[in-house]
Amino acid sequence: MQTKEAQTKEAQTGNPSRDRILERIRAGLRTVVPEPAALRSGPVIFEPINNPLERFQQECIGNLMECALTADSATSARQLSKVLQSLPEGETFVQDDPALRRLIEQAAPARPIRWSSQGAPGEASQATVTLAEALIAQTGSILVTSACGGRGASVIAPCHIVYATVAQLVPDLATALSRVSQERKLDSNSFACVISGSSRTADIEKILVQGAHGPRRLVVILQAAT
Amino acid sequence: MSQTAAQRFLQDAAVKSADLMHREIIRRGMESYDVAHLKGRARIKDWEAAREKCQEIKREAINHLDRYLLQFEEKVIARGGHVFWAANSEEACTYVKNLATRLGVRTVVKSKSMVTEEIQLSPVLEKAGIKVWETDLGEFIVQLREEPPYHIVTPAMHLNRGQIAKLFREKLDPGIESDDPADLMAAARRILRQAFFAAEMGISGANFLVADAGVIAISTNEGNGRLCTSVPRIHVVVSGIEKVIPRLEDLAVLWPVLATSGTGQGITTYGTLIGGPRRPGEVDGAEEFHVVLVDNGRSQLLADAEQREVLHCIRCGACLNICPVFRHVGGHTYGTTYPGPIGSVLTPHLNGIKEFKHLSYASSLCGACSSVCPVKIDLAHHLLQNRRNATEAGATKESERLIFRVWRYAMLRPRMYALGGWLVRKALRIIYGLGLAGSILDPMRVWNRYRSPVPLPSESFRARWRKGLDAN
Amino acid sequence: MDQLLPEVAVDTVKVLRRIGCAVEFPEDQTCCGQPALNTGYWGDARPCAEHFVRVFKNADFVVCPSGSCVSVIRLFYPELLAHSLLREDAAALASRTFEFSEFLVKVAAVTQVGATFPHSVTYHASCHGLRELKLRDEPLQLLRQVDGLKLIEMVRSEECCGFGGTFAVKFADISAAMGTSKAESVAATGAEFVTATDPSCLMHLQGILGKRDATTRTIYLASILAQDGLAQKSSAQERP
User: Fold this and answer.
1) pTM over 0.90
2) Which domain holds residue C22?
3) How many CB atoms sit inside 10 A of residue B406's CB?
4) What is the ipTM for the molecules in this complex?
5) How many structural domains comprise chain C?
């Protein structure tokens, strides 16, 4: 592993424009632009969220996501079964995690399982099942990282199923992003994503079409207790 | 004989202004945006506070651009990524091309990136024998039509489903029968799927470069950006240097504001953060990660005390959507990478004021753009400043300079001004009296081409005042 | 306005006097400098602005029935005259300069000016008044108090009419297209009249409407407010 100086040096020698651009930036910034008057102190930009669970469920509807609230792991397993049965025949890709191992065992789906430890999902996968790092009430989002079965797990298959608990709910984006920073999630993961719905496009006549290149269905199995 | 950009603009504007079908398509598209946008704004408790916050974030980033770029670079390199600083289009394209050829890349999948349009990357790669697939549906469509994107957010909004279905039948698969948008999307998905899995390199843009976390942030809806940055073994990001923001937490307000202004959504479906190649133990992800930082005239804008804030732009497209000029001539008429108000303000800085000043004049200065910009760039004011800069650079017609010199002379002499006004009215009355309105002898003929002539008063206000206005 | 649209000024004076103002017209005034400013010839606009500042130096209030002129004086004179010896006079003048409807409602605190105008009217929100002077409500407050006036809202009332000064001539096709869209919005209301806070918008619209043989006529805000029901003849613009 190179030292910081060595890395920067390498960046500099292979890239003579780097110094020139930095010099131009510094020269440009020497022009002083008058700062405007101070902002009004801390106005509240977003409506505070009093009931995160309710808000999350509302947002899911708006985002064209499915959110199934379950009481315990047995109900969650049944819910998972139900979703998988509604899909065309094919393999299910599952993030290799003890919680999901248990869930799959309980659900006992009659279809082949490909675990993330066996490699990335491919076109053969009809569905992917992953955990999430957090759920965000404000925007009805799930936060995933590469630790949640990899980058492709949340985008390749036509159906993405997230197994989460109510305890994972955070009120807003600010909290979620702050947590990502504090826990240095982006140092231990090369990828993270805030997902707020099924994939979609409105590029043709501004008409909303669901299921563009990503999943057409995003299902959250939200368990009340761990 | 080659035309200037200004001549081409006037010609295209004339054609498009009269094209009622085009106007109707755009009107419908913008109407649906207007509705969605207002709904989106209603989800934000204090929209003005949100704008101010975003302005503050971008101002901090731009005013310390070197510091934040270096912070970003350090983190990316520490994770095994590469950062290349490109002074101009040529350097950026050469870097990507050399990388691709060195690594044996034959196919590239691309997610939407306006800066790659600016530097004209695809033609360079294609010339080197590399097949480039645009994967964003709108970009995919205009790529097939071999035309530039019409709008920075919705590249194909000028086309209707019938035109797109016909295009797909001709270029992709003659078996495509339906013109239903869902079926057309399904066809595009089917074809692009193969490209995603065959491509050795994925190229993306970046909506933001997050300095403290050392990651790029990409906002997409389709999932094509996700696939471009997950499947191929090489991931290249091309971004303007001004996309930097200081902290990850800044996205908490920038993401909703970008989505609201861009499409009226509360947040874009996928807010992706990538900081480097795949880490040991990760299931998938690119093995190599390169970020190409493009200057191409941006650092010059930093030195402009008045217009530095133009670099705050987050490329949301709101100014395009509200601009009545854009709504009547459309995105292609501008003939530049960036159309609309932001394009008119920015292009003279990137491509020269002499050639592109006409865009700053092609505006009624209504100010709608300034009123919607989510980072509070006073675009209308900058258009006016560009006009001033053009005259001061001697880039305007000598005849016009003369007219204003005469005008000034008259305006400083009230009696001459009054006499001049009387003469003009007299002359016009004679010309119209002879039935010559609209002819070559009519000084108001341009005005009268589209309008019935201005009725001429018998006397000026000052004449009536002098006679004594009734105080009733 | 002095030369081409004197009726606006006549009616403005009439209304101001009716509410009790003493009105002066300094005859040395020429132009606020907007054409030169907007075309980028600030070197030519500057002496014009200085002349304006000198002419109006001693006025208690300066009232102008044109939102665009007032926005030049309030918003641009400080920048234009930043290095002029008259910059302080300009700043002082700016704080005393008002658009006509703004003056009535915000300074004179009057919305009822004794006007009668039994016709249907739709309102176009002229850009400079709307966005630069933030006049959203004042003209409407005045119109609502006019006896017999039926106010009809138009769609996209805030979209630019397309005049834009020299833009109307330099980019005539675009200007006309924008004007046509606005004319369509006007026509959709079925109103007899369309009014605005900027006479140049109305001059442009009148031309466009005239070419389409539309039935809606343009009338200046001041002209509506000047109608006191005593004289029956309307001072609305006659079609040529």
Assistant:
1) yes
2) 6-107
3) 12
4) 0.94
5) 2
